[in-house]
Amino acid sequence: MKRFDTEITDMTDPTPHVHHAASEGYTKGANTYVKGRPDYPPELAGWLKGELALGPGKIAVDLGAGTGKFTPRLVETGASVIAIEPVAQMREKIAAALPQVDVREGTAQRLPLDDASVDAVLCAQSFHWFATPEALVEIRRVLKPGGHLGLVWNVRDARVPWVERLDAIVNAREGDAPRYHTGEWRNVFPAEGFGDLEERHMPHGHTGSVEDVIVTRVHSTSFILALPPEEWAQVEHEVRALIASEPALAAHDTVTVPYVTYAYRLKRMA
């Protein structure tokens, strides 16, 4: 596999820095994650190429890349892409699907990259797991001056009543798992060496069978994947009861779950 000269070799004593819900859930559920997660809206391409200035000759990092759901969006910009992911089962999915991507083991607190070596670091569905000053110092280290940190989340639109009910079923099991919806990830900003946090909202939908876009999507949530089988069975019972009680869902083989993609950009100052 192609390697970039940004790689370093001092990884002899890595610290995992991975929350137990992510490690346990995603180790068990890589296949479920691939099947259940929505894609990203087409307008995100313009954001990546315009506001993050990605294109041929640039190097972009997909940090906390998971199975690579977001990675093709970076490849499509024409940039060279490095995907960094701590869970081996997830890395295997990226490597199999995207052989042109340089897939590396690592965490946000210990990036396998040289100083000032990349043009952008993107965290899609991941920054809430490592929203710490330590991670931001490390991200700033690897970014070139003027480079960008991009944060992206696909979030179900809970302004729709049945989506709000679905979220309540999921949120009741979150425990101590970091989540986007709590807003706690914002506490690390403003951050030294970075400019202001700029925000974009992009509404879209996830269309497919009820089984895929609702049941499997819930099952792909890290802390749900980590539940014992009997507790997952209770979650599934509640989700299916909601589907049966909601005319917009029960009467249709194919449904669209409303989402909003939240995209944030910060510039690394000189």
UniProtKB/TrEMBL annotation:
UniProt keywords, alphabetically: Methyltransferase, Transferase
Pfam family, one: Methyltransf_11
Boundaries of every Methyltransferase type domain copy: 61-149
Keyword Transferase: yes
Gene Ontology MF terms: S-adenosylmethionine-dependent methyltransferase activity
Source organism superkingdom: Bacteria
Family: Belongs to the methyltransferase superfamily.
Protein name listed in UniProt: Methyltransferase type 11 domain-containing protein
